[in-house]
Structure formats: structure tokens, C-alpha cells
């Protein structure tokens, strides 16, 4: 399965290029779209007593008129409700003319229990909040709890941001075309779509290649080719060495969670870097993971010269302040070339420590040959570092992550139930395989460790981050109820096995 996501503008461009290529005209695409939806309605609801089809004024409504005609021809009892009139001469007007069913104004909508609703009011062209007859229709259908099949998007959901504009349907099934859109995966859109079916309407892969989308659904196909597997002649340091900075004596657990996760994700060697006063408590809880005393920048330099760790995690349980900033900048000052430091995963307190010194961090990360910087902020941490971006209501979560990545010269994971991963080179991916079981203390520490572990094994920063987010989410979702962060490092093992065996996509 291909992983590209198309913005609504890119989808319109795909439409235009397909028509220009001469294989199908706009009306032909609309027929194919309507046929796909009608076939799914018949397959999923063979016993539907009555189907109400709600058509808007644009091409989404045009798809609806095609569905109405096809279902009526198949013997289904169809009621057709229209909001506005399609533009004369357009494809939707042609589709409406080809449908001879009686049309009633959407503002007079009534439905009966047990009936099904096909939502063809607005799709990719949604341009403002739902009002009037469309909003009233949402209220009626939602109030009656009728099952809804949405064409392209549930009306009221923005295809680009996943936001609800005014109000929106909650669909049981959403049928979209060619590729998913960001609004199918970003919340609350994802929840409003129900099951998402992708229908082929004749927009060829070459057309999508021409558009070269920069946004992806985060699935293994995006990074599986880069997933590390140990070479026959591997030894522990060749498999990558990750070091994790520990906090003081009363805050060491978070670093150990990260360290364990880095080890489980395949780093051959992992070291916890501990302040002297926390050595004893760390030592009491570590077995295969190594331990080294690090109190000052010279200790970091010695470690790098000596044991050559290629990746670092800084932040989990570390404490906020000068020390976090100094250590971060010391790591970022190293070179990447010739077996140097590949990258730093900055999480939690590491991120917060730069709230008043952000430009120093971004400059350090932007130096040519600097280690890759990966930051994993949750909502609160994101707002602390990127207050203006976070507060910009015109930007979707996807656009916010992208802008932050570009500004910070860093790969950003904007965490949450719909985590977005963005690279400074403009690529971005939206994750959708998580589950609320992951909302447990220490879960983010594990994520930071997985990413650092994959990065240490030579995976490029964006791919390692996407893989880390997916593996973490998959492990947590599969584990389900009762999950605590301590379970996660072990829970990633069956997920990794399936990835290595290529039995999960
Ligand atoms: N691209 C493709 O490849 C294919 C696309 N196809 C289908 O086309 C759909 C996109 O069609 P579309 O561009 O005509 O947009 P659509 O969603 O029908 O709405 C536009 C109309 O609604 C109006 N309007 C919007 N919001 C409103 C509001 N809140 N309240 C009131 N009015 C509002 C808007 O008005 P305006 O913004 O101009 O003021 C305009 O009149 C797409 O989702 C898919 O189903 C398929 O046929 C197959 C191939
Ligand atoms: N409702 C949810 N659905 C899916 N994933 C979630 C949900 N809530 C949190 N997560 C994931 O769990 C992790 C929590 O990380 P974080 O907020 O840093 O927690 P902590 O600081 O306790 O480690 C993130 O990877 C986040 O994406
Ligand atoms: K719709």
C-alpha cells in the first residue's frame, strides 16, 4: 500500500492532471467515485430499508447524485435531499440531471429509524463552518443515531486539518479516493471518519508521483527498507551504542526506561550516564545496561572519545536548567562524520530547558555536520518551545510540526493520540496506530529510547523517528489494558519480530 497523503489542493491537482492526461474526464472520475460508494453501500448494508442521500452544491454532491441513481437502479428505496443547486454546466449538474429521482430540500429532512444516510454534502471543498440546512441535518442524523456513509470526508471535517468546522457528521464508514487526506488521520477527524476505505477511481500512481507529496501515513512501508538488522559479523559496538543521561538520585527511573528501550530496539550497547550521587541507585537496577559517572562536560567528552556512543537521549527525569542546556550543546558540538555522534534525542526536561534559549539550540542543530537533533515534545512541551506556532489557530497540527521542524533544524515528534513526525527537509508523517493505553507515565521515555536505539544502528533520523513512533504505538495498542511503561520495552519485541520477518505492513 502506498503511504502518501494528499492535501485537498494536491487532490484537486491529481484530478486536473488525470483529466489532462486524457484517460478520464471530470464526469468520468465522478462516475467512478459514485460507483465505488454505491458498491460499498450495497455490500455493507444489503438489508437497508431506506437510504437517505444528502447532496451538497459541489462535486461531493455530484458523487451523491451518482450514488442515488445507482442505488435506485439496484432496487434500493432512495430518498434524495439537496442543499443548493450544482453550478450549471459542471460535472455535478450533469450527475444531478442524470438522476431522475425526486429531489427534496435538505432543510425539510426527515428520516426513519433503521434507515441509512449517505453524506454527500461537502467533501474536499469545505470552505467554512457548517450552518443552516447542513448543520440541521447533522443534528437530526446524529440525534437519531443513524449509520452514516460519508463520501470523501464526513461533512464538516476539514480534509487538511481534521478539524470540525461548526459541526460534523460521525460516519461509520468513509469512502475516499486515490489517497487519504491528512484530515482522515488527524484528530478529531480520524474519529469522525469511522472505517476508511480507499477507492481506486483511475488516478494513476504516476500522477501522484508527479505531485510528489511530502506528507505520509506513518506505516512500515515508509521506513521498512531502512530498518536495521545485524550483519553476520556484528559485534556489540557495531550494532550501535546509545547513551542515556540520568537525573539525580530521586529521578533515575526515566533514564533507565529509555535505556532499556534502546537496548530492546537493537542497539548493541547502552550506557546510562549518571551523576555521582545517583550511581548507587542506578547500579542497583541495571544489569546488561552499562553505567558511567558523568557530572561535567569533560566527562561527556571523555566518554565520547573513549566509548564512542553514536546517539544520546537527554531529558527523561533529567531536571530543567543549565546542566541540561550545557550537556545538550556539548553533544551537538560534536561532528557526525567519521564515526562521530549521529544524533541526540531531546525529550521532556531537555526540551523545557531551552524555553528561553531556543535560538542557541536551533543554531547548534543547524551547524553543518552537527548530530541530528530529534525532539519529542508533547502538547505542553511543544507550547513552551514554539509558543507562537502553537498559538496560531490557522495552522493544523501537521503544519505546526512542520514549521517547528524547519525552525529548529530538528526532526520533531509532536506527540499525542495523533502524533505528527516532521523533518526539517519538509517531509512529515501522521501516526494513527496508537491507543489511549499509551497515556501512562514513562511512555514517552520509552519512545525516546527506541528512537535513539534505531538511530544508533544507522537508520536515518526521520525514518528512525517514524519507525520508533510506529513501533511504540503498535506495542502499546497490542498490549492494551494494564499497560505500564515498564511493559513497553518487552512489548516491542513481537512487533520487531514481525517487522524483521516482513509479516506486518
Ligand atoms: N478531486 C478529485 O479528484 C475528485 C473529487 N470528487 C469529489 O469532489 C469533491 C470536491 O468537490 P468540490 O471541490 O466541488 O467541493 P465540495 O466539497 O463539493 O464543496 C464545494 C461547494 O460547497 C460550498 N461550501 C463549502 N463549504 C460550505 C459550507 N460550510 N457552507 C456552505 N457552502 C459550502 C462551496 O462554496 P464556496 O466555497 O465556493 O463558497 C462549493 O459550492 C470531493 O470531496 C469528492 O467527493 C470526485 O467526484 C472524484 C474526483
Ligand atoms: N490517547 C493516546 N492515544 C495514543 N497514543 C497516546 C495517547 N496519549 C499518549 N499517547 C502516546 O504516549 C506517549 C506519552 O508520552 P509523554 O506525554 O511524554 O508521557 P511521559 O512524559 O509520561 O513519558 C506519546 O508517545 C504519545 O504519543
Ligand atoms: K461528505
Count the E strands: 18
Radius of gyration: 26 Å
Fraction of residues in helix? 40-55%
**Biggest beta-sheet profile:** 11 strands, mixed
- The total of helices stands at 20
Q: What form results from the Cα inertia axes?
A: elongated
Describe the structure.
By secondary structure, the chain is of the alpha/beta class. It folds into 2 domains: 4-213, YjeF N-terminal domain (Rossmann fold); 239-500, Ribokinase (UDP-N-acetylmuramoyl-L-alanine:D-glutamate ligase, 3-Layer(aba) Sandwich). It is 41% helix and 15% strand. The protein has helices at residues 8-21, 26-44, 59-73, 91-97, 132-143, 182-185, 189-193, 205-211, 253-264, 279-283, 297-307, 322-332, 348-352, 358-366, 379-385, 387-390, 397-408, 443-456, 461-479, 488-500, and strands spanning 4-5, 51-55, 78-82, 103-105, 116-120, 148-151, 173-177, 195-199, 215-217, 241-245, 269-274, 290-293, 311-314, 343-346, 372-375, 411-414, 420-422, 428-430. An 11-stranded mixed β-sheet has the order 1-9-18-17-16-15-14-13-10-11-12, with helices on both faces. Strands 4-3-2-5-6-7-8 form a 7-stranded parallel β-sheet, with helices on one face. Strand 5 (116-120), helix 5 (132-143) and strand 6 form a beta-alpha-beta unit. The longest helix is centred in the first third of the chain and has 19 residues, at 26-44. The radius of gyration is 26 Å and the shape is elongated. The N and C termini lie close together (8 Å). The model has no long low-confidence stretch (mean pLDDT 96). Bound molecules: ligand NPW, adenosine-5'-diphosphate and potassium ion. Adenosine-5'-diphosphate (ADP) is lined by residues 348, 378, 415-417, 419, 434-436, 438-439, 441-445, 447, 472.
